[in-house]
Amino acid sequence: MRVLVTGGAGFLGSHLVERLRTGGIEPFVPRSSDYDLTVVADADRLFADARPELVIHLAAEVGGIGANRANPGRYWYANLMMGAHVLELSRVHGARKVVLTGTICAYPKFAPIPFHEDDLWNGYPEETNAPYGVAKKALLVGGQAYREQYGLDVVYLLPVNLYGPRDNFDLETSHVIPALIRKMVEAQEAGEREIVLWGDGSPTREFLYVDDCAEAIQLAAERYDGADPVNLGTGQEISIRDLAELIAELTGFDGEIVWDTTRPNGQPRRRLDVSRAEELFGFRAHTPLREGLERTIAWYRSREPAGTTTTTTT
After folding, report:
1. Among this protein's residues, is 75 annotated catalytic?
2. pTM above 0.85, yes or no
3. I need a labelling partner for 128 at 20 to 30 A (CA). Which of 2, 160, 296, 304 fits?
């Protein structure tokens, strides 16, 4: 089968591509420097070059709270246009199946815990990431519409916050786990006795190890052909304060953690109902948070130079 993985050179995409190659599939992996998916002519050229039967759309412009606050228009536009072009050109070029990845940011700010897929439309997303979340949620509507009108098999997955080796450690755009790891490792190496973190540490988050997410996407591509969105996660939450203390322990940082309460907390809680993924295509996460963090910290420390950043398209 000819497989196109947009974002295949990024964080999640690179792990998925490794899994596909291990299974004997050599996917087409475009570079953003060669194909700008926000430009329809570039996207059309990509589909003409790849001639995909299966499209796995992972490309995105995304970041943490600070990046979302700084780029609301860009994140809305880029993610909406990339997804719309992927859907339309999958139809035009005769792809048989499309796997779209949404975002946990699409859920309402005060969705009942645990987040169930049926609650997606019961409120507005948390304000700091709403443009990104709304753009990604619009692709669920598009995928269901293309299924109804054109018979295109579109699967929509909702991964929770990801982490792991090759994550984005740029402090301007990274998510919470790589940001905490980098801050604490650098503080420890510099002999600094204090780090400052946003908010008050009370919000909870759920985290999925990147290799587990790649496995889930592969299983969904192979086994799931339904219209209903499906959560991907562990079903377990941890407060940001407890997460920071755990990462401090694992990195050896023994200084003071200061909470800047003038900065936003983001969504109060996040924990998914993950039963649908297990029922529909047999996915269950298997990497404990502590083990995944140990692997991620070891990978970050192995890099040369230690402060080099990576990019992410998940």
Report:
1. no
2. yes
3. 296
